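Hi R.,

Here's the input for the manganese (II) ion complex you asked about:
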Amino acid sequence: MFELITLPYGSKDLEPVISAQTLSFHHGKHLQGYVDNLNKLIAGGEFEGLSLEEIVCKANPAGGASANQGVFNNAGQILNHNLYFTQFAAKGVALADDGGLKAQIVKQWGGVEAFQAEFVAKGVGLFGSGWFWLSRDANGELVITQEPGASNPVVRGLKPLLTFDVWEHAYYLDYQNRRAAHLEALWQILDWSVIEKRAIGA
Ligand code: MN
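And here is the predicted structure with manganese (II) ion in place:
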């Protein structure tokens, strides 16, 4: 049985970037719904007992398993939201100046601001509902990718590090159609120490 994650901050801690109302619906209604759906879908079947990553990869419709679209969608959304909600903190935590992740971002993009601009542009340019990601590939390089719907970079062998949600339920109560303004504001509450830990596999 999968359970709804507990948020590592209070309901108003991410305001004004993410309001308590948005958090209440996004975590308490949308994510809870995915958890309830997945538990019903996998009870007694071939996916029961597997991790979310294993379920997503096994049910991946792009791999030909289209009969498992519902399992993929709900497991993917739980995996995506668990990574999303646990990467924020009140007022955020800066990227460490002496850390390996900052050095690699500077090496690949020329600077953190250049990376952030390219990252947000990927989210602004994503048509419809989905997610965009910073991941590490098999060679250790950092890559920015878009994932439609409920998908996650693990289906293509990438290790996900950082993600912003561009389903409208993530921002519409606070920003309406201003997706770019919402994405720009998310940097204020991003806890980079979480991303650094993911990058070194801890
Ligand atoms: Mn969402």
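One thing worth noting: DSSP finds eight helices and three strands in the chain.

Cheers,
M.
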